[in-house]
Automatic annotation (TrEMBL):
<feature type="transmembrane region" description="Helical">
    <location>
        <begin position="194"/>
        <end position="219"/>
    </location>
</feature>
<feature type="transmembrane region" description="Helical">
    <location>
        <begin position="12"/>
        <end position="33"/>
    </location>
</feature>
<feature type="transmembrane region" description="Helical">
    <location>
        <begin position="88"/>
        <end position="108"/>
    </location>
</feature>
<dbReference type="InterPro" id="IPR045339">
    <property type="entry name" value="DUF6534"/>
</dbReference>
<feature type="domain" description="DUF6534">
    <location>
        <begin position="162"/>
        <end position="248"/>
    </location>
</feature>
<keyword id="KW-0472">Membrane</keyword>
<protein>
    <recommendedName>
        <fullName>DUF6534 domain-containing protein</fullName>
    </recommendedName>
</protein>
<dbReference type="Pfam" id="PF20152">
    <property type="entry name" value="DUF6534"/>
</dbReference>
<keyword id="KW-0812">Transmembrane</keyword>
<feature type="transmembrane region" description="Helical">
    <location>
        <begin position="115"/>
        <end position="131"/>
    </location>
</feature>
<feature type="transmembrane region" description="Helical">
    <location>
        <begin position="45"/>
        <end position="68"/>
    </location>
</feature>
<keyword id="KW-1133">Transmembrane helix</keyword>
<feature type="transmembrane region" description="Helical">
    <location>
        <begin position="151"/>
        <end position="173"/>
    </location>
</feature>
């Protein structure tokens, strides 16, 4: 019984949690297309592509579970056989991780203007994908699951690269966003929220990658590490969509505060403005706060002009 708990049991639990995360991701995707209809086409294609990959991953792993738990219900030895759908499900997850990390690498470049930092993150992401691709090819060749663990160092190295890339993304965005503080309460509040998103999402994905790697190295004979691997892809897609959808609340916060500040300030200036020859002097105050928090950058500019 214990053997099934660590294999099919772990895989089933991972699949259920991954399905829940997929549901959250689907809701986020629907909200994105509903609210941000004017976003660039390439960004819409990215979101749609990630949703398709997430769907395919669930389909592939579901097919593998059906093979082991239904088609071979009375044949426990089938657990030693790797299926094409199981391998493709893992590879789909790897592709999702690569795409999302490349997205955040570009965001780091846009925020920091540091080409080398972005290249390091992109290189780590490509190394992760390359190691996992090599693992996939070897898995198709070996067929038997127990033979797969003879080269576990390849997959583990890939997971380590992904974890380091995530930590670099979180640290870089946190540092450069902190550097962009303006001293203005509202914009600093928005920056603080972006900092929290960057830190939380980066740490969460890196922690899961490390747990996956540790379980794989310490318990290579079971599928507990696969349970975490199934969730990783969903965490990446949810983190990307959360960073896109949060723009609604951030912009609303800025617009509400800016509108209130401008109306109060203009009324005060007009009431205290001196008059000449019975004519009142009109004071126009233009204060623009533009916080661009879309998929590529974050800018904060403040412009004030007074006409007397």
């Amino acid at each position: 019984m214990g053997e099934f708990d660590n294999t099919l049991g772990a895989l089933s639990i991972g699949y259920v949690v991954a399905s829940i995360l997929f549901g959250i991701m689907s809701v986020q995707s629907f909200r994105y297309f509903q609210v941000f209809a004017k976003d660039p086409v390439q960004l819409k294609v990215l979101v749609a592509g990630l949703w398709i990959l997430d769907t395919l991953q669930l389909f592939f792993i579901g097919d593998a579970l059906y093979f082991w738990m239904v088609s071979n219900y009375a044949n426990p030895k089938s657990l030693a056989d790797s299926t094409w759908s199981f391998n493709m499900g893992i590879f789909t997850t790897n592709s999702i991780v690569l795409i999302v990390e490349m997205f955040f690498a570009y965001r780091v470049f846009t925020v920091s203007k540091n080409v080398w930092l972005a290249l390091v993150i992109a290189t780590l992401s490509l190394c992760y994908w390359g190691f996992e691709l090599a693992t996939l090819i070897r898995t198709f060749q070996l067929v038997k699951v127990e033979l797969f663990f003879e080269f576990q160092w390849i997959a583990s190295t890939g997971l380590a690269c992904a974890a380091v890339a995530d930590l670099l993304i979180a640290a870089s965005l946190s540092f450069y966003l902190h550097q962009s503080r303006t001293g203005i309460k509202t914009t600093d509040s928005v920056i603080n929220k972006l900092l929290l998103y960057a830190i939380n999402t980066g740490l969460l994905t890196s922690v899961f990658a490390l747990i996956d790697m540790i379980c794989f190295l310490t318990m290579p004979s079971n599928l507990i590490h696969i349970a975490f691997n199934l969730m990783i892809g969903k965490l990446y897609t949810n983190s990307l969509l959360a960073s896109l959808n949060v723009r609604t609340s951030l912009r609303s916060e800025l617009q509400n505060h800016t509108s209130y500040t401008m109306s109060s300030f203009q009324a005060a200036r007009q009431a205290s403005a001196p008059s000449s020859k019975g004519q009142s002097t009109t004071v126009d105050v233009a204060r623009t706060i533009d916080v661009h928090t879309d998929y590529v950058d974050f800018e904060s500019t403040h412009t004030s002009s007074f006409k007397h």
